[in-house]
Amino acid sequence: MIIELGHFMLVLALALALIQSVVPIWGAQTDDNRLMAVASPLAILQFLFIGLAFAALTNAYVTSDFSVQNVWENSHSQMPLLFKFTSVWGNHEGSMLLWVFILAIFSALVGAFGNNLPPKLKANTLAVQGWITSAFLLFVLLTSNPFHRIANAPIEGRDLNPILQDIGLAIHPPLLYLGYVGFSIAFSFSIAALLEGRIDAAWARFVRPWVLTAWGLLTLGIAMGSYWAYYELGWGGYWFWDPVENASFMPWLCGTALLHSAIVMEKRGALKVWTILLSILTFSLSLLGTFLVRSGVLTSVHAFATDPSRGVFILALLIAFIGGGLSLFAWRAPMLKQGGIFSPISREGSLVFNNLFLSASAAAVLIGTLYPLALEAITGAKISVGAPFFNATFGPMMIPLLVAVPIGPLLAWKRGDLFAAFQRLFVALGAAILVTVLCYSLIDGGSAMAPLGIGLAVWIMVGALAEIQLRIGLFKLPIAKSVSRFVGLPRTVFGAALGHFGLGMTLLGLMVATAYQSETILVMKPGDHAAVSGYSFELGGFREHSAFNYVDLIGTFKVTKDGKEVTELHPAKRVYTSRNMPTTETAIYTIAGVTQLYVSLGDKQDDDGIGVRIYYKPWVTFIWLGCVVMFIGGCFSLSDRRLRIGAPARKGRAKEAAGTA
Amino acid sequence: MLANPHSLRSVFRSATKLMAALLLILSVQFLSSPAFAVKPDEMLKDPGLEARAREISEGLRCLVCQNQSIDDSDAPLAHDLRVLVRERLTKGDSNQEVKDFLVDRYGEFVLLKPTFSSKNLLLWAFGPLVLLLGGASVFLFYQRNRVLAQKAEASGQTHLSKEEKDRLDLILSDDDKT
Q1: Contact at 8 Å (CB) between A458 and A508?
Q2: Which of A43, A337, A419, B98 has the greatest number of C-beta atoms within 10 Å?
């Protein structure tokens, strides 16, 4: 009964979404406040109904109601409670429901907290959200209904895919979806602005918090996915340039560009048209990602051709939204007034530079992801595009961008002084050169490029702090004055500094871990020792452990350094009995929060030996910690007073500027 | 079995045919199975050769997997290919010869880095092209800006005095403090 109610809630939500798609826009066109006011309550109600539908499905999972096909296919009565919750979205139907639910959350947030928005902008924005919600609700109801019942309910479920039976599934997909569905708001704002034919700096100020939110969550989501793959797959990799990863990485690149161009628009009224285009493109890439992952086209072009109903549906949505959005853009954009003249060497200019390289690198990732699919579909020729391609195309484009990161914030608006910016960065430059030289002279091995990469990371990290140092007059003014200035700095300054600092950390982690890691693959018998980077690993022995759905073969490794015990590690080889699928459960020990010892088990050999992989991964956690720092930077910017207040307060700002002068 | 290249070739030929049919099932399975990759018993004694083998393996696709290199995959086929690569290396092939040998056999599909051939022109050129076109647009944008600025000047909006300019700069640089 609850299941049918859940289904019904979805249908109701669709009806509401359809009304929301039409009525507010009609109101905005005819200046009817009552019609426009319909949007917010509708958005909130949809959130409620889709939430109830989601709860109904969750309930079926928690109570192991195997009369529901979706539950039967992806759950097991003996599963731990956490996995019963997470398996709700560990499958196609459920994850699409989560997608729509998150879309509804965002619409409801705009409905509930968008009181400072001009009524027409709000009405149009929510109407566009209504289009997206209707389209995806239709998709769920027509092609991916999670509430489908089976006539004779089986007694036991088929269990969740073993690789998904992990805490990672609880965190990664929701974060990722919050990120890339979040960009729908920027899209809707853009379409609304185009419909109205009116856009100003205040628009950018309204959109920025949403872009920041989506971007921050997407950053965390991608990082979480990367760490999940790292410990789950058992061979120490963290980024594979897999199409599924690229699907989330492209909106991130585009969203990062959007985040920066919106600053120019907000502060200087320039780049309006470009910012609008970028927000359309960012959400388009989110939709493209959804299509790639959800249509099955990646698994096999043939599989897609034999059962195309879902794929074709999303493809149609993709074409409608991207094509529609871009056509509207082409029609309306020329009407938007351009404003704000600036020279190439200026804060604006540096942000244009940022946008140029981010867009081009997103384009490189896009073609690498789509080209093999397109080529096979058109000519039948099969090629592979993997990590070596992306390293060769994406990598070089990142270098100028990364070099420019610290310089941008130190240039003045309109017309900057590059030489002065460099003067302010002499500490960063000195540190970068020093570290590069030290790496070359002190560390043996590793690639010749590694010290340069590390130097670049140091340049970004130290350079990120330069703006703060400059603005509080550290070392130039008395300390007390610096401290009071520090306290008074707007949070966006901290946000930018943290964002850039985190980027530097991630780069540093990537460089150090790639260049100086060591790997040992060998067969070990109980009592054997292996030496890796100064650590000694002794295999104590094996034991078996079985749970309801898997059997573990657990090895015990005593790790010592210079005779002193460091830790004991218990990697396992796990076989899930229901699907007879082996997985590796790696054991990881983190030294001082940065460097990791990583052990995973392979196959058991005939002579009581076992394959073992041991890694020493120096500074590897920086890769993900850097992303966390970027996220925190986003939170700082988000908490800035200016964004909370919303509309630009000219008077107050002038007063404060005079006060600090 | 591996000692005789001819019998091996026929085995792989029939395997290739089967593969197309099995692709869906296999890729689903290998997508979700853990990659344990290089096994200790496959590795060569000579560390130099083994390093080369690893380098080559990283650029070769495990044909039945989803976008995994044979170095990262634990599929039986990836195992066979790893052994094959090492065999060729011990026989004295250069890195390029090993790759050519595999491309002959499996087609370009086996390379994770597509060749610079005409059919891949768009693939390689697209990113740089976007960068170039984007750069050109940015250049035109600045040109237009300059023209606009000159027009503004011609229409009587002359430069600010030094004092005015300094004050303005100060206000502008403090603009984002609020």
Answers
A1: yes
A2: A43
Confidence check: pLDDT of A654 > 60: no
Name the band, by pLDDT with cuts 50, 70 and 90, for residue B15: very low
Which CATH number is B5-113's, of 1.10.8.640, 3.40.640.10, 3.30.980.10, 3.90.1200.10? 1.10.8.640
Top residue of A285, A383, A552 to mutate, by most chain B CBs within 10 Å, is A383
A253 and A383 belong to one structural domain: yes
How much is the pLDDT for A301?
A: 63
Residues A324 and A230 in one domain: yes
Instruction: Give me the count of residues in chain B.
Output: 178
Query: Nearest CA to A530 among A443, A615, A437?
Result: A615
Q: Minimal Cα–Cα distance from A462 to chain B, Å?
A: 22
Counted across chains A and B, CB pairs separated by less than 8 A come out at: 189
A383/B109 touch (CB, cutoff 8 Å), yes or no: yes
Provide the terminal-to-terminal Cα distance of chain B, rounded to the nearest Å. Answer: 75
- SS3 for B77-88 is HHHHHHHHHHHH
Contact between A341 and A399 (Cβ < 8 Å): no
CB A256 within 8 A of CB A358: yes
Contact A378, B104 (CB under 8 A): no
Total domains in chain A come to 4
- B-contacting residues in A 389-418 (Cβ below 8 Å): 389, 392-394, 397, 412-414
Per residue, the 3-state secondary structure of A418-465, as one string, reads HHHHHHHCHHHHHHHHHHHHHHHHHCCCCCCCHHHHHHHHHHHHHHHH
Cross-chain CB nearest to B35 (options A235, A299, A384)? A235
As a whole number of angstroms, the distance between CA A583 and CA B32 comes to: 9
Task: Take residue A19 and report the two structure tokens written for it.
Answer: 């009304």
Q: State the complex-level ipTM.
A: 0.87
- B38: which chain A residues are within 8 Å (Cβ-Cβ)? 521
* Between residues A464 and A443, the one the model is more confident about: A464
Residue B178 confidence (pLDDT): 43
User: CA angle, B127 as apex, B126 and B131 as ends, to 5°?
Assistant: 115
Q: CA dihedral in degrees (A8, A14, A20, A26; nearest 10)?
A: -120
Query: CA-to-CA distance for B78 and B38, rounded, in angstroms?
Result: 9
Domain layout of chain B by residue ranges? 5-113, 121-177
Domain hosting A191: range is 166-404
